[in-house]
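Suppose you are handed a protein chain with no further information: no name, no annotation, nothing but its sequence. What can you learn? This example shows the usual starting point.
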Amino acid sequence: MKHFLSILLTGVQIFSSVATATTPIGILIPSPDVSEEEYNSALSAFKNYISVEEWERNQSPTSPSIQKLIQKFSEAEASFTDSRDPAEIQKKYSDLLELEMTEDWGLNEQRIFFLSYLRLLQTNQEDLSAERKSYLDHAAFYLTRMDAPRNLIPPPLVREVEDRKAQLKWEPQNLSKEIVANYSKVLIMGKSQSTKEPLVLPRDLQFPIRFRFLSSYRPAKTKVISPTELSKVTLKQDSYVPNGCGSQSLRDDQAQRFSLPTKIYEPLHCSVKAKSSDEQKGIAVVKSTEVTLPGLSSQGSSSWKMKPKHWAWLGVGSVAAALLISQLKKKNEPNRVTSPGETQGF
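A reasonable first move is to predict its three-dimensional structure. Written in structure tokens, the prediction is:
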């Protein structure tokens, strides 16, 4: 129990310290004509500004969503400790798991989902049911990303999940050329990866997982699909800024999107600074000729049943759950702070 809690609480503490380290003053938005090389150099010059992609990564999960998850987890654990009705316990954890695909959850929140699937397995005695097999697959997926909380779950159940994990068949999944060209990163259940690298995922998992495609040039897009459907995904290609020089502005449907001030960055060939109508809207436009861009070149299956003696495990972990809930509440800031670095992941 102590080992599991120490990992979770350490993660919360690290995230809290990183989140408060640097507070950006704004978001640097590239026009469509700006190359990635030039944009990255501009970000180095504007050290107090962050990329759109980084801002997007830090918008999920929101503080209200985290608080809702903590509340549902608290209620589920209370039911698990106090109730002797498996159906009541399962209902609580099933309600909690409805939140699983709604956000790009960090590692600490995903531990709650992992434990929830383990609790559902622990209270489900129908070894051959499709429902129990689904719980097992979900738990096996999470086990590929984190250790099992061995002090909270009966050893036979841990071994069952480990056996299922060993059976998973992994293979690369291909994204369309269009997505690779227009989106630089994808969050796979909260874990960031370049779209230019193969997405290696279990092909035999039938349940959908959350993919969020990120770009600094266009709004993020979210899909909740099975890994085998990735090659068929198409995304609307709408940009933040229209093409052209001189009168750059955010598209009307994007103007109120950002929680920080925005600065639009125009490419090198837009050498004449033009006063934009956005300057009256609080949206600054900066030409590449106004700053020095560092680093930029001129070229441009065992089974386990709930037996009477196993009910003793139901009380195990109640203290752990209480501490977990308390610490998550303490560390969760009321306002989400955007900071450099990856989304909490594995």
